[in-house]
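Next comes a concrete protein, fold included:
___
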Amino acid sequence: METMVNVKSNPVTTAVLLAAGTGSRLQPLTSDAPKCLTEVNGIAILERLIGCLRGHGFKRLVVVVGYLDHHVRKFLDEWKDELQIEYVVNSLYSTTNNLYSFWLARASIKEPFLLVESDVVFDDSLLEGMLQPDRIAISDSQCWMHGTTVTVDVSHQVSAFQVGSDSAPNEIHHKTVNMYTFTMASWCRVEERLSQHVAAGKVDEYYETVFAELIADGGLSLEAVVFDSAHWYEIDTLEDLLEAEKIFPGRTRGKELSSPV
């Protein structure tokens, strides 16, 4: 499947990173450091992401922190002259989910942005397709993948989200890569629906629940950008980390960061 080419607007230069969780499934590595600082062949997930963002012209990073947030702040202090970095604190990180973290960032979102989570490692070149707003990164489903999937129509627009066990027979489902871009118009609709969920006390949900609702009622349109399944990995467990290290090498002489081969 190829991505439909739309008329380009200005590229997105702001990223929102959700990094508040405890990463409990990566214990003991996350006993004294947040998940985003887990090293893949000696390079932290967050360092790889920062290098990728800088390489694609990003100027601003909003980070939602919680668990051991002082480690994240200390780590990012090295890039304070390269990126405008703003922190949002989720003090309820142990009892809330990413829907709540995303909602907390609302006051810091002032322009079209890239939403990304702190456990995804990917080839830098893949981000090129995500520099325009109202897009979603997806991948052909593989046996190691789990979590939310989507169906895509013939015009490369997402037609439905499948959150949890929701699925329809005889449909091709694609795994979400937990990476999205939004225009301000789309974000206003997302923010409104996030606020409704928070007001109803549904703070332990995934933000994909909101996306699913908005796609279903026509309030959100997202164009699919396909990520090659051999060039990205979501790291939730120690087993995931071992598999990711087969794809993503460590540092090589003369290069700050290396891309998958």
